[in-house]
Each structure stands twice: as C-alpha cells, then as structure tokens.
Amino acid sequence: MNRRAFAFRATTAFAGAVTLSVVGGSGIALALDDPHGDKDVAVSVEIAELEGPGVLAMTVAGQSAALTESGSTATNRQFTGTLPTVTVTDTRTADEIPAGAYWYVLGSITDFSGTAGQPDIASADSFGWTPKLVAGDPGSVAAGDEVDPGEGFTDSEMLAMAYDSGEIAPEGSWSANADLKLLTGAAVAPGKYSATLTLSLFE
User: Fold this and answer.
1) Which residues make Cβ contacts (< 8 Å) with residue 65, sequence separation at least 6?
2) Is the pTM of this model over 0.90?
3) What is the annotated signal peptide range for this record (predicted)?
C-alpha cells in the first residue's frame, strides 16, 4: 500500500468527521434548544382590600409655579401663572366621618422677596388667584371665590365641601388648580422675586 495515499485518505476522513461533527452538532442543538431564544414568564399579583379606617388627604402635583409678565400697562405690571393641580381624596366611609364635618382647603402666601436686596412686594396688596375645579363632582365640592390683587389675599379658600362630608357616599377625589396673578406698579424694582404659597387642608 502506498503510505502517502493511505495518509491522505486518513487525513481526509478525519477532517470530514470533524466538519460533520461541528456542523451537524450545532445544527441539532440550535433546533432543539436555542439558549439565546425568548422565554415568557407570567407575573401575577393579588392585592387584598385595605383594612382599617380610610383617610382624608391632599396632594399637590408640583412644588413650584413660575409667573411671567402678561397684560402689563403703562401704569401697572402684571405677572400670571398656574398653580399645580391640588387633589383632595377621601377614602373614609360615612360612619368614619364625624356628624356635620366638612373639609376645605385654604391658601396663604408670604410676601415676594427679592434675591438681590430689592424691596419686598406685599402679597396682601398685590397677589390674587382664581380657583377652578378640574375633576370631581361639582355638586359636592365647590372652588373658592376669585381674589383679585389688592383685595387682601390671606387664608383664601381654594376648595370646600358643599355638604357635610358624611353625606357624600361613596367618598371620592376632587382636583383643582388656580390662575395666579401678581400686580405691581410700573416702578417696581427689577430682579428675581420669590414667595411661598402654603395650602392647608382642614376639616
């Protein structure tokens, strides 16, 4: 036998076997179980009903409001903006609410202080708002009255129950915002000013 011919045939057979093993093995493995394929996992949760008393709570959808100049005249400068939405939620049942109780939201504001030493702008003489109910039953909750600049903004009502809290069943959620207005004289010192508007929920 020609040794070189035998060696050639042996090498060819071995090389072919290696090729078949790699291609065939890989093909079978991928067809039966692709380790990189997508797998779905079902996720479930069961939420039990809350036990215990309900609550009366207020949230505000933001921590700041910017006023920009709009509607100024030769004698007055006017700045307007919008209060972030205020939501009152009552999850109490009627028997959890004291007889005759009702809730209301009041707003109070500090004077506008200048960041560069400008004289303060007195909010009681210059600031006002127009509250508006934007969600919830208007038959059970009413927005507060408009307060124009100069009318004395102090503990001004934003929202209030129209009836006793216990008469509204089931309890729900009400949201409101307010158009804000600052009116100053034309000679007001230029610069940046800031004030803090506090909203308080009472019952």
Assistant:
1) 81, 82, 83, 84, 180, 197
2) no
3) 1-31
